[in-house]
Amino acid sequence: MDDKLLFELDGKMPSLKKAVPIAAQHLVAMIVGCVTPAIIISATAGLDESMSIVLIQSSLVLAAVSTLLQLFGVTKFCGSRLPIIIGVSFAYLSSMKGICESFGLAYVFGAQLIGGIVAIIFGIFSKKIVRFFPPLITGTVVFTIGLPFIRRP
Predict the structure, then answer these.
(1) What span, in angstroms and rounded, lies between the C-alpha atoms of 25 and 37?
(2) Do residues 70 and 86 make contact, with C-beta atoms less than 8 angstroms apart?
(3) End-to-end CA distance of the chain, in Å?
(4) Distance of alpha carbon 145 from its chain centroid, rounded?
């Protein structure tokens, strides 16, 4: 079987020998992406080991539930029905650290709840507002998100 079939819409994995390493790579990438922000926030909040484990497990469980909702959908408005992994975003890590240092972990969770509601509202109207976000604007936002992570001498 041709390897290029792997990347087509209806492509099938040629063999289990190729499927296992690719699946393991995806699994490790997802786990590292979900666990790292939880570790950073738990260290910032000064959580003990048991509460850090709870935060890490919560991020993994919610990523799994979100992925399943995205894959299978619940209504016609929920889920793309595509194999997309939903995980924890590093984009908000600097904001979460700042909120946690200033106000505490409970405020981080509250901010995430409000942010999720706002994201749902923007998602509903995304086709109408996409014209307000050209590549120059989105590129600047991505740059600004990464700016706090630059090390200073």
Answers:
(1) 19
(2) yes
(3) 53
(4) 15
Residue type, 132: F
In degrees, rounded to 5, the angle at the alpha carbon of residue 98 between the alpha carbons of residues 97 and 102 is: 115
CB 39 within 8 A of CB 56: yes
pTM: 0.68
Q: How far apart are the C-alpha atoms of 29 and 39, rounded to whole Å?
A: 16
The tens-digit pLDDT sequence of the chain (153 residues) is 455 655 566 667 667 888 888 888 888 888 888 899 999 999 999 999 999 999 999 999 998 898 888 888 888 777 788 878 888 878 888 899 999 999 999 999 999 999 989 988 888 888 888 888 888 988 999 899 888 877 766
| Total number of residues shown for the chain | 153
Query: Could you identify the residue written with the tokens 């484990």?
Result: 53
Query: CB neighbours of 90 closer than 8 A, spacing ≥ 6?
Result: 33, 36, 37
Q: Are 41 and 100 in contact (CB under 8 A)?
A: yes
> In terms of DSSP H, where are the helices of 46-134?
49-72, 93-102, 105-124, 126-129
